[in-house]
Amino acid sequence: MTHVGLPRALGTCYYPEHWPQERWEADARMMAESGLTWVRIGEFAWSRLEPRPGDLQLDWLEKAIEILNEAGLKVVLGTPTATPPRWVVDKHPDMLAVDEQGRPRAFGSRRHYCFSHEGYIEESRRITAILAKRFGASVAAWQTDNEYGCHDTTVSYSDAACRAFQRWLEARYGDIEALNEAWGNVFWSMEYNRFDQIGLPNLTVTDPNPAHALAFRRFSSDQVREFNRVQLEEIRKYSKAPISHNYMGQVTDFDHYALGADMEIATWDSYPLGFLEDRVVAAPEYKQAFARQGDADFQAFHHDLYRAVGRGRWWIMEQQPGPVNWAPHNPAPLPGMVRLWSWEAFAHGAEAVCYFRWRQAPFAQEQMHSGLLRPDSSEAEGLREVRQVANELASAPKVEGNVADVALVFDYDAEWAWAVQPHGQGLSYFGLVLAQYRALRRAGLNIDIVGPSTRDFSDYKAVFAPGLMHLPDDLRTALEEAKCVVVLGPRTAARTIDFEIPTPLPPSLDALQVTVTRVQSLRSDCPVALEGGGNAVGYLETIASEHEPVLEDSAGAPVAVQNGNLMYCAAWLDDEGWDRLISIVAAQVDMVTRSLPVGVRVRRTQSQEFWFNYNAHAVQTEAGEIEPASLIMRTL
Amino acid sequence: MTHVGLPRALGTCYYPEHWPQERWEADARMMAESGLTWVRIGEFAWSRLEPRPGDLQLDWLEKAIEILNEAGLKVVLGTPTATPPRWVVDKHPDMLAVDEQGRPRAFGSRRHYCFSHEGYIEESRRITAILAKRFGASVAAWQTDNEYGCHDTTVSYSDAACRAFQRWLEARYGDIEALNEAWGNVFWSMEYNRFDQIGLPNLTVTDPNPAHALAFRRFSSDQVREFNRVQLEEIRKYSKAPISHNYMGQVTDFDHYALGADMEIATWDSYPLGFLEDRVVAAPEYKQAFARQGDADFQAFHHDLYRAVGRGRWWIMEQQPGPVNWAPHNPAPLPGMVRLWSWEAFAHGAEAVCYFRWRQAPFAQEQMHSGLLRPDSSEAEGLREVRQVANELASAPKVEGNVADVALVFDYDAEWAWAVQPHGQGLSYFGLVLAQYRALRRAGLNIDIVGPSTRDFSDYKAVFAPGLMHLPDDLRTALEEAKCVVVLGPRTAARTIDFEIPTPLPPSLDALQVTVTRVQSLRSDCPVALEGGGNAVGYLETIASEHEPVLEDSAGAPVAVQNGNLMYCAAWLDDEGWDRLISIVAAQVDMVTRSLPVGVRVRRTQSQEFWFNYNAHAVQTEAGEIEPASLIMRTL
Amino acid sequence: MTHVGLPRALGTCYYPEHWPQERWEADARMMAESGLTWVRIGEFAWSRLEPRPGDLQLDWLEKAIEILNEAGLKVVLGTPTATPPRWVVDKHPDMLAVDEQGRPRAFGSRRHYCFSHEGYIEESRRITAILAKRFGASVAAWQTDNEYGCHDTTVSYSDAACRAFQRWLEARYGDIEALNEAWGNVFWSMEYNRFDQIGLPNLTVTDPNPAHALAFRRFSSDQVREFNRVQLEEIRKYSKAPISHNYMGQVTDFDHYALGADMEIATWDSYPLGFLEDRVVAAPEYKQAFARQGDADFQAFHHDLYRAVGRGRWWIMEQQPGPVNWAPHNPAPLPGMVRLWSWEAFAHGAEAVCYFRWRQAPFAQEQMHSGLLRPDSSEAEGLREVRQVANELASAPKVEGNVADVALVFDYDAEWAWAVQPHGQGLSYFGLVLAQYRALRRAGLNIDIVGPSTRDFSDYKAVFAPGLMHLPDDLRTALEEAKCVVVLGPRTAARTIDFEIPTPLPPSLDALQVTVTRVQSLRSDCPVALEGGGNAVGYLETIASEHEPVLEDSAGAPVAVQNGNLMYCAAWLDDEGWDRLISIVAAQVDMVTRSLPVGVRVRRTQSQEFWFNYNAHAVQTEAGEIEPASLIMRTL
Ligand SMILES: [Zn+2]
Ligand SMILES: [Zn+2]
Ligand SMILES: [Zn+2]
């Protein structure tokens, strides 16, 4: 929590290489006048920094940084490795990632590299070192690359990835018999004689061994961290500025905690309207109602997640300022939403909110992505709200320490395990955790998302940890011994580290006697009713336990059981089911809950309480009436 | 009908190679105590039988067979050719099948071989001979390979398949001019100069010539039979035990009659809940109502089909005992269904019902597939019902001769012809025959499914033969001369052997003057009403006939016509239409029909009448009230 | 308008190579007796004209032409280049087109060539020259190739296409810096050093640069024109007969105006029922109501479009005469529709209507496509209606000059630009123009579709030109200076020639001050209501203008503005919106409009007024009651 006391700040993303140098000063002046203090630059500029192999052209960037600094702006410099120029690809033709269908992913957009390609890793090290050496002293922060994993780029099925995977497996398992044994390769005669026989788990006749698939997901995540570390190593040789990476929404293919542990700040790119359209799972009526506002929990979830990834220090590096270009539909935000999104980030502890982008580009892929300025430099709708936020910030508290009664565990490894074996159509770990998060938000609670390496839960009244398919021993111990109420399940500890069903059968807890004896996945039109209201939906375990059920189905079978502080919930629940579960827990730990209406959410910092209304209509709350697409800030 | 008088038996599928040898005896003892008499083993064990090229390790299998035999269990030994180990693929890299998109189907699961690869055929012969020689005397039956065609593996677009197809065509047509003429290759200048110019019918710009596509389907089916025959040849050198293969549900890519003719017993793998989800075509409400019971006709259809394939001798080799792992949703069967499914098989004449699998595997692809035991060896829900069936069998009749008033022709060649040219979206021969089968079942009739080589229909009061697109001359004669009522159409005799529309126009029958003058396919929202009730749906022929119509549309156009025993129905009908058609036929042949409610079905053997209730609620019938998911057995 | 005064004629498509020579005379006689005067032949006959390289067999074709000519029939001879025989592909293995997924499109159907393959271009030149030399004097017209672009064949991702694209770009941009600048390749470091580095815009990680994609679309269109020109060059060396090409419905991948400018006549292939099923975008209820009649505007649109492409001279080369074989569902036309479709073509100015095909082929891909005769040479249903049309033509006026109050601009380049950047799911330029065309038809107006090279609008009272994303300067001037009302927008002039957003912001008109300040795409469930009725749907621009709004949204924001003759409409409207817009314009220019019911349409020539009823029920109109699937012809 090193950020406490910093001023809450605003910023923007700027591409000096897109505009004539004559405009730079006017741009910088206008940014400063608008209340911005941060500018991110450089992250796609490789073809201008090195137009031909070895032909370095860094003066223009130095000039741009100077102009920005002189206007009082601080610079975040991005390494340009998300966009290697054509000549880099010509030099390393096999550096292209390969998709699951076996097709090389061609040059012509961005992120066209395989994390495992050694030649490209060296190019990345080289250009990073050059930038770090030249600009290490003049920039206030760094960003590595751009949006790792975006466009499904974490996983590559290239030859380079295959060879690296074989080495990774050999390092992990030592000898091939150990791997065969660990994966159960005797099944279907999948046993290998040597590591170099192991292929990638794509294009198999039917599903590959889930142990094989999960190992490949873990390997792929490790490759991202290794790739990133090479840049950190070079930057730190020459610069003391903090380093960050801008994560995306719901990109879960690599372990963000692992990368976060290597850097000083986590940032993320928040596009509420695009995300609602292209990744939030919701009924059409819901998407209709929030088409111009976004989902009221999706951004908040990521704020809380990336606060954990950044160990307290986090920003929005790219905030949607108007219509975007890339979603199935790209409406304009309701007036007020840019301000609301900005304040929501601060309410969750952001140090800075930067808008993407300063001026809309008239060319190329994102020409329909709005900026704070239009292509002709006139002011776009969003800029007015940014100015308002800047004014409000002047009299607002600085960044404060975080407060939350509830922790919710989110584990990337569990996400991969569920993806490898969802067991039922549409079931995902991310979906399960988000469903539980939504229910906690409906109850008006502040939530900390915490990673699976957390061992100390003493700050919390309750911990929710659904779906942790593999539960490391020390986490199991920490959860069992926590003094707060801990809600586990479904699917907790269902697999060993190598994706085997353990014996004794899961979850095999010391502090709570419960056994999963059967697992079902349910059609969406076949919910199983709970006694007293709500339903199990999608995923349901049959459990045997000597303890009294906390929830049971209408036939009397236990659905959730508890012993002391430890509770196990054997099902994915519907909204009413989650609400009941949370009420039960809240009553036990003396935690006040609310029942917030759709689209209304509350978030507290140490000194403030924020009420957000995502609806297009005014809503009456205990904090007073909130205007459509607006918020109330109360001092506590 | 060689099976009459055998005791009805139970069994299971067991994988000794998955468990420590110390457990084998206890397992065997428990199987026997549970009332099982058959155990299938070995069919995926190649990597343990031959871990490296030529390194044979057969002792463990001998030990396993000994232990099972000593416990009083009879062994079915499977050849392990569905799962060639990695080293086999390394030796023959081009043995992998190639999918329709041109991608090799990689190692890492099962069935990763092309039936046309000569190197692999020899590997298959070699390992089969080795097993037959060593175990020919100690096993009670054989199974070749496993589930031919499962995972869409009958058809391969590999180079090996292409070369074999060219040879197959040359053998069939002799010279290239004959092929060009037969296929009408003058159309679109598709004429070839030599057989080695002929490619496979995938990835063409628009549809390939249907004659080309159909020839490739026939070739692909022949390759399965040839592959299987190599194993039969080796086994029979060393063993007198009967040989079987375990077919799947609705895998129609190869001619099961052809394989069946080469072996003593047909078996199949029955997964009612998985099949309902992933292959039965039905409204969501129907799938919801039967999600935990399965479709009330789908298994019965296959029982009747495989009875024909086995020329009277058939088993269930794999019976679902609880939730499976591979369907879009995997619920648990309603209590009672494992018993119901088992008895339904016996009612249709099964000699044995074996449950898949004895103990749930804790690892690899099928770890979520339930067994009779859980991974920790505790008893799963299904085992209780298996014990009940075993008890009931003790006092039940033995396997009896079959009785049926009605024959329904099912022809794999017609299935391929319709697939090559469905003419309308969603139309399939399988769907047409199943629709007619369902209607006959609603009428409470016992049905024999018969193959297209049937010439003697004297056992039957009525024969239904819809959709036989190519009608061989002698089958045509047999049907025209049958003494019972024969219902043909739609699409009967619509094509020559080489997929040409014949002149005179179809169906061109001697005993019934009717001509199809036009063919339509209909949108699902554009049914054509029949006078008196019911509709033509999907597929409708305009026919000209001098005979009185049996059914006509509301505009007075004939839809079905009859002369003497021979009837032609020119349309795919809806349920009401089929029911009317069957009533008309039943009245003519003095056949008593019922009108059974949804989910209730009747089946008679020589001495017993079985009433099955697939519903989740009790149903009142003439045989009395049947409990949910239960049955009534009456002695006749 | 060179066609005025020609007799309206009928014809058919005939394949003498499919039938024994003995039938040819009887066929020719029967055609003539049925009232046909034109016969198209030869377009798929390469394998019979040249069965082996250089082995020319032209005598049979000469004989066929003789027989047809002797029966009084005029022949259109097609060049056979849509179906190169197998040996041509063996000679040029890399002539196959490559699909967007990178897969060669195999031999075995038709159109299996890449327009950019130089070897194949020479084969095409060679066979065309041979035919032109031999038959240049004996045929009355020519057709080049067959249905360019059908089966998605305009665009090929082959190596040949890539190299040709690089040359095309070099010719267009001269040096690589100019291209980088024009495309904005600085964005994401997509800058090239040399033209030979530029790949095709497929399989990129995320969207390619839209400038890149659009250039490739333009190049691909140019390649079709170049391919066609080679044939024109050869034919004109030896023949004075007019040359045509048979275009398809809604194939918009190449610029038909460009090809049309090179030839004397435009023809197209009209399959109303197939098109309704497989390309018309409409609600299921609409498709159900018109399943046997087709869409009441789709054919008319193409009649008007191809009249423009043919600069007044156009035919239907293939008219659906009964059920087709290739749509998702293939019902029979309602009795009367073949006549209706034929007369509708004449009402729009067709010189000839030819039916596809004379006799149904009993073999190969189109065996289920009905002809005027059945495969057994009996007369099919359609022929009766053709005879009726022939009789009616005897006393009908000849082809007349066209009359229309309204012009609607259709621009292929705009279609590609929208396809490259639809901005919202389901939005297309074709859809926008068709929606406006439908509204003009509902108003009972005669419409001329005109190309983007039109500069003289003096014949019209109103011009509609929606969606012209790039507006060339001289067209802009012509539209601004036109004396009639000109309705532009949405998206007019939104891009420079190189797909950049221009400054000043679009549409930047001299005669109307309006600026698009923001662009949105809308979910289909999020329409924006207009004040007074109707909605903006799908696509909506925010505009700033000093002029009074003609339409505004319910919040008072302008949606359409006008100054003098020039109007800009900033949205895609729903039916009510378009109707209101047209009413406003009609009132200004004193143009009488009707409000025609669904399925009823009117079309006038100089001396006749036609009323068409596409409905399956009779409709009362001011011209009297029209029978179902019928028409009324009134002399003016
Ligand atoms: Zn971004
Ligand atoms: Zn199986
Ligand atoms: Zn055609």
From TrEMBL, chains A, B, C:
Domain of life: Bacteria
Protein name: Beta-galactosidase
Keyword set, alphabetical order: Glycosidase, Hydrolase, Metal-binding, Zinc
UniProt similarity note: Belongs to the glycosyl hydrolase 42 family.
Reactions listed under catalytic activity: Hydrolysis of terminal non-reducing beta-D-galactose residues in beta-D-galactosides
Residue ranges annotated for the Beta-galactosidase trimerisation domain, each copy included: 404-588
Entry annotated with the keyword Cell cycle: no
Domain called Glycoside hydrolase family 42 N-terminal: residue spans: 13-395
Biological source species: Celeribacter arenosi
Enzyme Commission (EC) number: 3.2.1.23
